[in-house]
Amino acid sequence: MARAPLQGSIVPALKTAAEPGEVVIEIGGLSIRFWVEDAPFVRLLRERYAGFVTSVQKTQLNFDVELISPSIDHGDADLRVEWKFGRWWMERGDFQAEWNPETARGLVRQTANPYSIDCVLRIVHTLLLARKGGFLLHSASAIRNGRAFLFAGDSGAGKTTISRLAPPDVTLLTDEISYIGQQGQSYFAFGTPFTGELGRSGENVCAHIAAVYFLAKGPENKIEPLKPADACGALLKNILCFADDPDVVHAVFQSACKFVCEVPCRRLTFAPDARVWEMIV
Fold first, then answer.
1. DSSP, res 154
2. How confident is the model at residue 5 (pLDDT cuts 50, 70, 90)?
3. Angle between helix 246-262 and 228-238 (nearest 10)
4. How many helices (H) and strands (E) does the chain have?
């Protein structure tokens, strides 16, 4: 049986913080509370986002989660993110969600799987970051000697490989989705729970970004500088932007242009050899 589309104001009153069944997930300094009336699913979320679950009472965003039966009709539906009626509306085969930025409240209707919340988190963070000069980037990132380095590229470019090759003095932030926030004229990379092939969450820490490397595999290790225009094009290819909204797209474009003017961008060609990390300093 197909699910009815979200209509009107469907967000019920939020539960109090003292009640059981809530999970607060903090990424990039932004805490989001999810209320779920299902103990096994609460445990699943807490395990899935371990290291990013916090007990803060005051959160910036609040979502109620309503678990529903799987829908055969919508099982393969593509993701849609739209702004209408003063809310962001999100829908995919496994979930429907709405979020009102003015009230900082929302609702997620989803099947009992951990991937829907993951998608909602990514969408919400991209929308919020777009207004603040930041973005989520399809890249690995890590901290070495107190500075963060990003390794961007399409699937198969080597993000997981370079993460796996990292020496013991490297702190992994993610091998899949990097969180970039702007503070003044500086950019910082934050750890995320968004995992790639390593299947391991990053550390919940942050550091100033020293450089971005766009990955390419080759017979030898070498680093080449990129012109700002080339770097901006490569960056835009890897920025996550789910909403087909003119204001959001414009904000992301402006953020990318500013970023490449402030952060060194290079092309890193490397062989699957740990010696590549000798060049990352």
1. S
2. very low
3. 130
4. 5, 16
